[in-house]
Amino acid sequence: MRYGLKNAETRELEKLSYTLRGEIEIAVAQNGGHLASNLGAVEITLAMHSVFDPDTDKLLFDVGHQAYAHKLLTGRSLSGLRKKEGISGFLSPSESACDAFVSGHSGTALSLAAGYLRAKKLTGADYEIVALVGDGAMTGGMSYEALNDLRTIGGRVVVILNDNGFPYGNGGIDSGFSAYLDDIKASKIAAPFKCYGAEYIGVIDGHDIGALTEAFKKAKESNGITVVHCITQKGKGCKAAEDAPERYHGLPRPSFGKTNEGITFSRAAGEGLTALATLDKRIVAVTAAMREGAGLSGFAERFPDRFFDVGICEAHAVTMSAAMSRGGLIPFAAVYSSFLQRGFDGLLHDVGIMNNNVKFLIDRAGLVAEDGETHQGIFDVGYLRLVPDIVILSPENTEELKEMIGFAAGHEGAVAIRYPKGAPPVIPERLKSFLTRPIGENAVLVSGAFAELEALIAAEICREKYGIETSVRYVKKLKPLDGSLTEDLKACKRIFTVEDNAVSGGFGSAAAEAFSCDGSKTVKIFAVRDAFPKRGTREELFCAEGLDGETLAKRIAREFESKQLGHKSGNEEKK
């Protein structure tokens, strides 16, 4: 159902808030997703839709995990939330014209606002520009760069500051901006945001629809930047989420079948790092608003003086870690793969040039279920391989992850350890023999714990269905490439590489560079195609990319069938 709320009565909007909260809670209970942040932004969203027009105005959400109410109001059902055939958990213009821009990473809305404002002035278009910005986004540098630039442009932009006092993942970190907001609320600052040339309206109760509507109308009449400062309660309307907003920030999809055994990679990373830190006081942990997700809560409790959560600013985390290493510490920076992309300049310039002693714990590497294209961890191998001298590791399981953390702590220079979300897959005993059998003419080299399971299934199908014998080797050292492979592959003529990383510049590319140069071997790369994977379960994503065991077996068999017709290059059709 599409709701038309332009100039709606306050009483009508208040009634609708209960309906929206109920639908959000049901959807998250069934599909997982972001609960606390969405419940806290319901009234703000209703007031936005009452004053502004989602069909024509540019409503920018920073970040998109607070936009579930917006999706409902623009006629979308949450029943298929984060599912393959359902709707995204973030903003997606391909899903609705009411979504002005993709929004999966934080700190972009004000830069987008500046871009739209310049476009509006040059094209003569007629629309309002509204940026709903969480206080967590204001811990990142891009927000200030954009505010600084907006002043020079001139023209109207409405900035709605959603201040819930609990930026995601950092437990209400005592940052400079948090202190600034506290001073504003205590009336200690007479002219907030004046340095950016912005008008200020606040402090507004973010759950008082009448007050919100009036504030937004006033901002709409201004001639420049207006910041509307709203105080909200994260998890509003759900007591459990109100009491523990960090726990209820992002919830996994409920599992009704067999789950993976053992602890998650994230938890193992935290445990391994904490154990090492008891032995070496130089070890410190750094994260960018990912304490819980990266498994570092235990480290933070045990070593509060050696744990640093810098907020949503990955570039700062990387460069700061580089300087900490020069100062005699051993920093471990724990960041999700898709977020570390934002720190690439620091990786190359500040860590790489001097090969500084920084260690990266790269969580959520590979294909990531449900969150969609904004959160896929499929690019890190490619951009990490560009950094000279860095060591890139990929563990098969959690015990290997702990061992690799130990190696990293003792290695002088940059080390990156990448691992997937969740616990390692369970590998049936019957498949393990493919990992130890001698390598003959055909070998499958695999990187990624879940890719390994599919490669082993493919090896079994190749033998039983197609009569093709292969051996499988898990490659744990991606850069420099494991030297022992050279001897192991001496008799091998055909190498197939399997990874849940992008085909361009990934592990397969490294293997092709290493093993196909003398012409005695062919290397065929099976990886994520050159596109952004959509959402779905991990199994659905592997199938969509042609990386499930059955499809891999067909693709390998096809190489044997077509060898007399000539070799196909590239990442050919997968099925």
Chain-wise SSE layout:
Blueprint lengths: L9 H22 L1 E2 L1 H5 L1 H10 L6 E5 L5 H6 L35 H15 L5 E6 L6 H13 L3 E7 L12 H10 L13 E7 L3 H12 L4 E7 L7 H5 L6 E2 L13 H13 L5 E5 L9 H6 L4 E3 L4 H13 L3 E7 H4 L3 H9 L6 E5 L16 H6 L5 E3 L4 H13 L4 E4 L14 H4 L5 E6 L1 H18 L4 E4 L2 E3 L4 H5 L5 E9 L4 H9 L6 E7 L9 H7 L4 H13 L14
Parallel strand pairs: 2-3, 3-4, 4-6, 5-6, 8-9, 8-10, 10-11, 11-13, 12-13, 14-15, 14-17, 17-18
Antiparallel strand pairs: 1-7, 12-16
Helix pairs in contact: 1-3, 3-8, 5-6, 10-16, 12-14, 18-22
Distance between the termini: 38 Å
- Within the largest sheet, what's the order of strands? 9-8-10-11-13-12-16
Helix content: 25-40%
Extended strand count = 18
CATH homologous superfamily assignment of the largest domain: Thiamin diphosphate (ThDP)-binding fold, Pyr/PP domains
Briefly note the structural class of the backbone: alpha/beta
CATH topology of the largest domain: Rossmann fold
Mean pLDDT comes to 90
Rg over alpha carbons: 25 Å
